[in-house]
Amino acid sequence: MASGIQMDQETALELVKKGATLLLLDVPQFTLFGIDTLMFSVGPNFKGMKMIPPGPHFVYYSSANKEGNEFSPTIGFFITTSYSEVVVRRWHCQDERLVKISEDEECRYSEAVKHMEFDNQLGPYALDHFVEWKRLSSYITNTAIERLEPIGGDITIACESGLIPDVPRTVMEKQLMEQLNSSKFSRTTPKDSHRHKCYYTKISQIVKRKDISGEELTAMNLDKVRSLL
Fold it and tell me: ∠ at Cα 24 (116, 72), nearest 5°?
């Protein structure tokens, strides 16, 4: 995967050195991998992303079968990068997910990245997509992430399926629920899935207040974001 922005070799090298790097070890071929607004299928030499701009980013992936035509529910996590930072994750074959490694290992791999040892196996962040992501993530702060993210940081629909029965389901939502309840995917759901749910703010289905006008009350029930202010 290459960025649509054209640049000379010197500029590209400068971005590699200043941008953050996400080093992903042992990710199987055909795994679907995404960061921010871009997702693609992993090749045999894939080791992660380089030239990642500083700030919050959402990393997500979906493990595949050997043929690359069936995928598990997507798992994602937030990272907040700084200049020249190296973030390292390793693929856990049994759990089919990316996990953190020890500090000693991370230091060794970070040095290897800074010495360009993995450069040919790292895909460049698509800088032409960054403007869109920056607009979408403009209100995402470290405080918001820490308040909302599950224990362990991994976010997956497999642990959030309880949200769907509370609202009318579309055909696609019904298919998703059937998929999540199938034995194939239920095996990948943590037993203590309640600990892996996001800590969303609860919003009342119906807002009842006597200190505002009828017009304001109607508006608040139509747009419940107002009740969070």
Answer: 155
Residue 182 pLDDT: 62
209 class by beta-carbon count within 10 Å (0-12 exposed, 13-18 middle, 19+ buried): exposed
**Contact call for residues 60 and 75 (beta carbons, < 8 A):** yes
- Domain parsing of the chain, residue ranges: 9-149, 151-198, 203-229
Q: Measured at the alpha carbon of residue 64, what is the angle toward residues 73 and 113, in degrees to the nearest 5?
A: 100
Q: Name 137's Cβ contacts closer than 8 Å, sequence gap at least 6.
A: 36, 55, 56, 57, 58
Confidence of residue 183 (pLDDT cuts 50, 70, 90): very low
pTM flag (> 0.70) = yes
**Cα separations in angstroms, 133 against 55, 101, 127, 139:** 11, 28, 10, 11
Buried b (16+ CB within 10 A) or exposed e, 68-91: eeebbbbbbbbbbbeeebbbbbbb
Pairing of the two strands 48-52 and 123-124: parallel
Distance of CA 183 to the CA centre of its chain: 25
Query: Is the domain defined by 9-149 classed in CATH 3.90.180.10?
Result: no
Q: Which of 122, 138, 62 is nearest to 86 (CA)?
A: 122
